[in-house]
Amino acid sequence: MSDTATPAKPKKARARGIAEIREAQKPSLKRLTEPELPQDTTVSHLPDGMEGEVLAVLAEQSPVLFVARDGQRQKAAEQALAFFAPDVPVIRLPAWD
To answer: What CA–CA distance (Å, rounded) separates 48 from 79?
Structure first.
């Protein structure tokens, strides 16, 4: 008998699909609805198209300020917010650039 141990085969890294990666990158909406949120909450780097849902969740708790990168994104966020929370009033400020 030999006293040498057979080296263990390295485990293959599991390939993650794009849907799984996107799911892992989504912000936790549950965390946004926790009652212990600080007075000032900053949310950034949301995936495109998710702004409306996050704004709706935050607007249930307090007034929200949303700063869009450009007019197109502002319009898209307003439309998404209207879908998720049609009763939330929106005040538009003109672009300053």
So the answer is: 13
